[in-house]
Design brief:
The chain has one helix spanning 25-211. It has 212 residues and is mainly α. The longest helix is centred in the middle third of the chain and has 187 residues, at 25-211. It is rod-shaped.
Amino acid sequence: MKTKAIVTLIAAALLAVPASAKTDVPGKIEQLKENAANSKLNLKQYEENLRIVESNLQENSRAIKALERQKQSLDKQKLETAKGKSGVDVVKKQLEGHLAAETRQLEAEKRQIAELQKALETLLENQKKREANIAEYQAKMTTVETEMASWSERNHSIVELEQAIREKEKEALADRKAFAEKKVVYEGEVAKWKKQSRVSERQYENFSKLKE
């Protein structure tokens, strides 16, 4: 707010003439004339100053109203800012919650990754052992297959030998049966001829006795 300057007043020198003094009419008139001129000048200056003061008051009132409007606008902005800050605080808390949750999840996943890496290392070690075992078993399998081939040959020979033995056993059983049958026949013949021999001997003995 710009205030207009007030014009400086010119003091009017009013001469006080004592009643007992001799009157200087021309001087008094001149003095009165000067006083009147000064009074008019002072009036004009006071009127100008009054106008300036009134103008300044109007400017001041407008300035105060403008300041009040600015203050109201500022209060409104402060209220909106407070509401905005409240909303920002809510968003901040939400973001902090999300951040904490993501951080916890990240740490949990890091632990899972570490466990998986450890498990993977164990599996890789086991894989090496399995591969070594497989190589060893394959080598043993080759040896076993060689032995199996040899066994197969021996087994084939054994089978052939068993077949030959069965054939010979069959022949031997047939021979035994034939021999058993012949034995029965021969035992019958032996018994018959034994009897016949005794009969013949008795006949011979009897005949010999008769001859004597």
